[in-house]
Amino acid sequence: MVQKKTHFVLDDFVPYKLVLTAERVGSQLAELYSREFGVSRPEWRLLAAIGYREQVIARDLSAISSMDKVKVSRGLQGLEDKGLIQRTPMPEDQRAALVRLTPEGQELYQRMVPRVLEWEANLIDCLSASEYRDLVNGLDRLLRRLDEL
User: Fold this and answer.
1) DSSP assignment, residue 59?
2) Which of 15, 70, 73, 84 could form a disulfide with 79 if both were Cys (CB 3.0 to 4.6 A apart)?
3) Are strands 55-57 and 93-101 parallel, antiparallel or unpaired?
4) How far is it, in rounded angstroms, from Cα 138 to Cα 41?
5) Is 117 strand, coil or helix?
C-alpha cells in the first residue's frame, strides 16, 4: 500500500501525470494517423474497434471506443465518406446499423496496426520487461478501482 501524502505537488499528482501522458501519447499518435494514413484520431479509434471485432452495432461504438455519440457519429460519417466502412441497417431494427470495414478499410487497418504497434514498441523500449508488466498491471488495477469509486 502506498503511503498517504500529506502535501500536494502537482508534478507528483498521479491523475495529473496520467493526463499528461495520455494527452502526449494521443497527440503524437493523432499526428501519425493523419500524416501516414489520412485519418483522424476518432476515425482511428473506430477503425480499430471495428477491425478488431470485424463488425459491430453502431450504437455500441460509443462505449467500446470511450467516445461520445457525436464524435462516433462524425467519425463514422468520415470513414464512410472515405469508403472505409459500410453501414447496413439491421432487419429487426431499422434505426440500428451493423458496421464493418470495406475491403479498403480492412487494407488500411492491416497497414495501420503494425505501424501503431511499432510506435508503441518505440515508446516502451525504455522499460524493462518487469517494468512494462508492472505498468500494465497497475493501469488495469487503477481502471478497476475507478469502477469501484
Assistant:
1) G
2) 84
3) antiparallel
4) 25
5) helix
